Amino acid sequence: MVFISSIFNKLRDSINSEAEKFIKSTTAIINAGGEGVRLRPYTLTQPKPLIKVGLNPKPLMYWAMLPLLLSGVSNFVITVRYGKEAIEEEFGKGEKLSKEFNRAIKVDYVEEPKPLGRAGSIKLGLEEGKIDSSKPAVILNASDILAINFLDLAKHHILQRVRYGFEVTQVYASGYKVQYGIGKIHPTTGQVLEFIEKPERFEPTNTACYCLQERLNDFKYIKKVPSNPEDELIHKWIKEGILGAYIIPYEKLISIKFEADLEKASKIDLEKFIKDSWI
Description:
By secondary structure, the protein is of the alpha/beta class. It is built from nine helices and 13 strands. It has helices at residues 2-24, 60-71, 84-91, 95-101, 117-127, 150-164, 233-240, 259-265, 270-275; strands spanning 27-32, 52-53, 58-59, 75-80, 106-111, 137-141, 144-146, 168-174, 182-185, 192-196, 205-212, 243-249, 253-255. The protein has a seven-stranded mixed β-sheet, sandwiched between helices. A two-stranded antiparallel sheet has the order 2-3. Helix 1 packs across helix 6 (150-164). It is globular, with a radius of gyration of 18 Å.
């Protein structure tokens, strides 16, 4: 029994160590190029990522980045188009965040010359050398606040890769009915078996958050632009059997799409909402 416990402890320590290395070398790719049409008139004078929300109002993208920052991620690439000057002025090259978190935070930008979609903007970032395909990456939207510990996501991703060979982890929210892309997930392994874009039924819901490494190279070869990962890449990954899932309760996701979402988020202590995920 002592021997088994010793092996378990060594395995746990090894996974923890690998997850910390993964997070330290991770680039967080934040998609912030949209016009926020559904949030007009708010977005007529400012880009959606800069709309201030929460009881302690701060830009929406700050709250989207906070769980990553708390988890130890220090490198960010933000894809921008609409309102890019205002976004770059607010977040700079990471100077304010470096001071707040007392470590070097690097922020870089990929500017879309025209709407490229979330996958298309990553393709451009790879071509420009702003995104390093050899390093781990987490991809998410600037308007989605995921109250999760990304170090736990990294551990899950590493374990799924060792156990089942999954090279991409897609984050799903479970427990509510909305019209988003959804996945059918194996109950034992967590493998994504099927993906259907925007049906209306009760199933795990795509959060547009992905954790991956070498598979960033797949973005170089998307066939059409504009394009999102859900258009081509998810189906490629499912066919190859390398897409796994990380499932969170829907209460851990705040997605800002409409005015009602803004009003709701403005009544929430978002710092507490995010930090409670660490308890």
